[in-house]
Design a protein that fits this description.
- This protein has 128 residues and is an alpha+beta fold.
- The chain has one domain.
- The protein is built from 2 helices and 8 strands.
- Strands 1, 4, 5, 6, 7 and 8 form a 6-stranded antiparallel β-sheet that branches. The chain has a two-stranded antiparallel sheet with strand order 2-3.
- A hairpin with a 6-residue loop joins β5 and β6.
């Protein structure tokens, strides 16, 4: 029922980012804090990317209301401060491991995460 402390988890790496503090919304360019699911500045882990349109990524982070870990699809231009980190949290590790591909490139190794880290800034530049 419980895992032994001595049982090592497989090492999982991800691109870690923060949700932008404020963003423009709607035709009137209203300023909003964060996204619908994540507060501005929230730490999220990019666990998968959709390479076709180069627009969306799947992230795991704490929900702005319930503070529970969730996974959600986020536009790449809503991420800032990209960096590479291992995943230590058991809940984040569980959610990241259970992401089904469905056309997405899921991060399974440090090398995958490094490649995604080099790709994401180019995707963000195409939004400008």
């Amino acid at each position: 029922m419980y895992e032994s402390i001595d049982t090592p988890k497989p090492e999982l790496w991800a691109v870690t980012a923060n949700i932008v503090k404020t963003r423009e919304f709607g035709s009137e360019k209203e300023r909003r804090n964060g996204t619908r699911f994540f507060s501005g500045g929230a730490k999220v882990f990019v666990v998968a990317v959709f390479c076709g349109a180069c627009v969306d990524v799947i992230v795991v982070g704490r929900h702005r209301g319930s503070k529970k870990y969730i996974h959600s699809v986020v536009k790449v231009n809503l991420l800032e401060n990209l960096r590479l980190n291992p995943i230590y949290s058991p809940k984040v590790h569980e959610l990241a491991s259970n992401i089904s591909e469905n056309g997405a490139w899921v991060t399974t190794s440090k090398q995958d995460a490094q490649e995604i880290l080099t790709i994401l800034p180019r995707w963000q530049a195409s939004w400008v």
